[in-house]
């Protein structure tokens, strides 16, 4: 099955700096890569996603890059703000429909300090 | 759109009792729902895939007789933790996907504490 590794496990940045979280996946057939933000005690919220036919996607301060050859993808957050502090999870999936199962990375706890 | 409602948000039960958690898709039909368990400071671990009108598919290591899943309609899946023990205390989250969209929507989660 799919195996997703995520680094770093914790990340502390100063407000205004950029944060980068990296993930690798094992199944070359994976074709959909969402990123989730989870605040303490809350549900994971989708913040951005990318499909395997695209190398990069950006949404305001958030961007995701995908390298299919190397089987890794990264989340980039620019101009970080205190409200970006949360746990971020990457995920990968071989998307064949609504029954396809997500495999999550281990999570990165991001702390944005003032 | 693509809202998933989960109840209860938290529950405390005595050891040996059973607890039922409900997950509803409010504005779409979900033939498949997923149940996750999340321990503190850990990732979401898939427990089982709930299929409408058929048996759930359990991940390796998950006891199907302990975690009963019922998906009786296209909008409702339930997870029953039977004979709960303190080690079952965790955050349980359901998820479903609206076939019209990308992305998986999560319920708000249920924090189960077994005392």
List keywords for this structure.
heterodimer, A: about 110 residues, mainly beta, B: about 120 residues, 7-stranded mixed beta sheet, globular
Question: What features would you describe in this structure?
Answer:
The complex is a heterodimer of chains A (114) and B (115). With 114 residues, chain A is mainly beta. Chain A has no helices and eleven strands. Helices cover 0% and strands 54% of the residues of chain A. In chain A, the strands form two sheets. In chain A, strands 2, 4, 5, 9, 10 and 11 form a six-stranded mixed sheet that branches. A five-stranded antiparallel sheet of chain A has the order 1-3-8-7-6, with no helix packed on it. In chain A, a hairpin with a 4-residue loop joins strand 7 (62-67) and strand 8 (72-77). The model of chain A has no long low-confidence stretch (mean pLDDT 95). Chain B contains no helices and eleven strands. Chain B has strands spanning 4-7, 10-13, 19-25, 32-38, 45-51, 57-58, 67-73, 76-81, 90-96, 105-106, 110-114. In chain B, strand 7 and strand 8 (76-81) form a beta hairpin. The A-B interface holds A 32, 34, 41-46, 49, 51, 89, 97-107, 109 and B 30-32, 34, 41-46, 49, 51, 91, 93, 95-99, 102-109, 111.
Shape of chain A: globular
Please count the beta strands of chain A (DSSP E, at least 2 residues each).
11
The overall pLDDT average of chain B reads 93
Structural class of chain B, by secondary structure, is mainly beta
* Oligomeric state of the chains in view: heterodimer
Q: Which class best fits the helix and strand makeup of chain A? A: mainly beta
Instruction: Quote the beta fraction of chain B.
Output: over 45%
Principal-axes geometry of chain B comes out as globular
Question: Major sheet of chain A, described briefly?
Answer: 6 strands, mixed
Q: Helix and strand succession of chain B?
A: EEEEEEEEEEE
Task: Determine the N-to-C terminus distance of chain A.
Answer: 41 Å
Quick one: how many beta strands of chain B? Answer: 11
Radius of gyration of chain B: 13 Å
Total helical segments of chain B: 0
